[in-house]
Amino acid sequence: MTSSPGALFALGLFAALWFFAGLWAVGRGIAMQRRSAFVAAQTERLASLVDASPYLPVVVRADWRIEAGERLGRWLGLEGGVRNFDELAGADCGLDRAGLDTLRQAILGAQRGARPFTLSLRPQASGRTIVVHGAPAPQAVGGPGCVLLWLSDATEGQQALADMRRERDEALGAFEALSGLIEAAPFPMWFRDTELRLALVNDAYVRAVEAASADAVIDGGIELCEPVAGIGAIEAAEAARAAGSAQMRTIPVTIEGERRMMRVVDVPLAPQDGPPIGVAGYAIDVQELESERGAHRRFADTQRELLDRLSAAVAQFGPDQGLLFANQPFRRLFEVEAEEVAEGKPFARLLDAWRDRGRTPEVRDYPQWREARVGWFALPYASEEEWLLRDGTHLRVVAQPTPDGGLLLIAEDRTEQVQLAGARDTLLRVRTATFDNLFEAVAVFAPDGRLHLWNQRFRRLWVVDEGALAAHPRVDALMAGLADRLARPDQASLMQEVIRAATLERTQRGGQIRFADGRHFDFAAIPLPDGNALLIMLDITDSRKIEVALRERNEALEAADKVKTAFLSRMSYELRTPLTSIGGFGEMLRAGYAGKLSEPQSQYVEAIMDSVGVLSRQIDNVLDLAQGEAGTLAIERVAVDVRTLLAEALDDARSFAEAEGIELVGDLAETIGTIGGDASRLARLVAGLVDNAIRYTAPARRHGGRVLLHAWGDAKGVEIIVSDNGPGMPDAVAAVTEGQQTATTSGGIGLALARQLVAAHGGSMEVVSERGQGTMVRILLPRAE
């Protein structure tokens, strides 16, 4: 087949065009391949940047499908990727239902109204805080209804923000507390600005300068401290700022109108590595402190003066172990010179000096001993030890560390006490020997009832082994074992009770016991000052025999006395019969039955009648005395006007007193009243006492004799006193007091009868007589009905 040239040309042109088109397609493919590789690299780079970004992009499409990376699942605590919006919430992970609904509403708002939003979400299973920024997605990202979410992990930021808020709140609270504290401070405080002008003062500052308010202080620039030595408050603040540290000074300041010592402190305030922002200051009242310091100095001086007067040696060392003070006994005992105290010589060097002077004990290893004594300063407790010096001196040394790190050293010379202790031991041995050789049986019981001490006579008396007593048995066990030695074994409980009373009740008791062999003992338990009880047993066998003999003799004497009393009573009655006849015939003669009597005869009759009266009274006295001794004296109880009775006794005795030249004085109170008693015997009692007083006073004092009858009464009774200034009769008073009621003297029988009559009326009588001074009889009679 033959082709035309035109066809061949067309075919060649088509082939050329096809070739060139193939070359262009190959070149275009190569270019597109390169472009695709570049875009893929850019896409991978952008994906890496997105992954490295703190923000996570999430696309929510209109059908609620989600396009997001795997980081979204990790942030929400979900397993695997998230492809649907509802997968953002889980049972115990992801968002909770409330958070999911909130996010859904925000996305709907962005879809419908194109409103951007920002939310903060907290997943359930994660401690993260996720901030969501949402807005409609660009058209290049998605179609209509797509929303682009940018998620950021704000956990650390929120924590930091919370920390910063907490720190801010704490700082504000601290600032408010500090401001309140400064405002409530009881001492003045202030703050100066950078120009050193007052910018802030507290209430105490306002009160101190007596200003109306803090604003008035600041506006007026009222300073608390006056210039002292040319330095004012501003100059002191400038010095503190220049020094860069707090400056303190103690100056007098007027506080509320009163001059007081204040410690003023200026403190420059500046942030770290920053310029100063001002100067703060405060003033503390140290008036009491300064006063106390002065008082402390005076107390220390007084204490040192007191220590100088003590017999014990006392030295004080400071925290540097230097000697601060040593009293006079310490200086004498350790031979300390005044220069050593003045220079504060260290304790270790003092020990060396004392060793050279022989004032330390001899020890084998002195360096070790010295180091241990220097260690006293570091001990938390006191140390006490005995030092025996070379010259025989015994010292008791006490080292007491002081709170400031010093040491108080006290040395007591006990040489004399040691010597006395030796003498005491000797005395104890002597006492023991004396104790064992006493005639009495002696034992000492402790407060718990145990036998403490005993002598050999006690052991031999009870026939007890030394070993049994050495076991110190209790008193109950001891007496139970010794009861068979007694004639009456039950008396052992009596001794036990006496010992118990002495040890526990601290009362002294005693008694008597009889042994089975016939011996008699007096015993007594005596409380001792140390709480023990001393039991003493005395053999009274011989005394008991003598007592029996004396008792028999006394019974014989009592029988003889009864015979005598009966004889006196009978004789009194026998004598009264002829005396009555004599008195009767005398009355008849005086009445003139035998005719008119001459003057001498009348005098004889009067003498007879006086003698009859005296003898009658004597017989009554003897009869009453005999009845009193026999206990048969009968007293008639009637109302007796004592004042009238005493007045009649004075009247009856006045003529006798005048005849004897004796002044008879009566002092009878109006309050004497009446008592219940025997009027006749009381009248005879008083008459006998007054008669005796006149009779015994007259011979000694012919001129200046005086007898006083004094009486007064109260609700309880009547007191009668008969006194004279005669020669006294102490022998007769002593005889009546001792019971020797003999009829050898009228004074004796009068006092004896008077005592019996007073006793019969329930009263008491006291007789006081001194030779050459007179006699006083004091009678107390009760107001018995």
From TrEMBL:
Organism: Sphingopyxis indica
Reactions performed catalytically: ATP + protein L-histidine = ADP + protein N-phospho-L-histidine
Gene Ontology MF terms in the entry: phosphorelay sensor kinase activity
InterPro entries xrefs: HATPase_C_sf, HATPase_dom, His_kinase_dom, HisK_dim/P_dom, HisK_dim/P_sf, PAS, PAS-like_dom_sf, Sensor_HK_Regulatory
Gene3D superfamilies: 1.10.287.130, Histidine kinase-like ATPase, C-terminal domain, PAS domain
EC code(s) of this entry: 2.7.13.3
Pfam families: HATPase_c (PF02518), HisKA (PF00512), PAS_7 (PF12860)
Limits of the Histidine kinase domain: 570-785
Protein's UniProt name: histidine kinase
Keywords: Kinase, Phosphoprotein, Transferase, Two-component regulatory system
SMART domains: HATPase_c, HisKA, PAS
Domain of life per record: Bacteria
PANTHER family: HISTIDINE KINASE 1, TWO-COMPONENT HISTIDINE KINASE
Upper lineage: Bacteria, Pseudomonadati, Pseudomonadota, Alphaproteobacteria, Sphingomonadales
PROSITE patterns on file: HIS_KIN
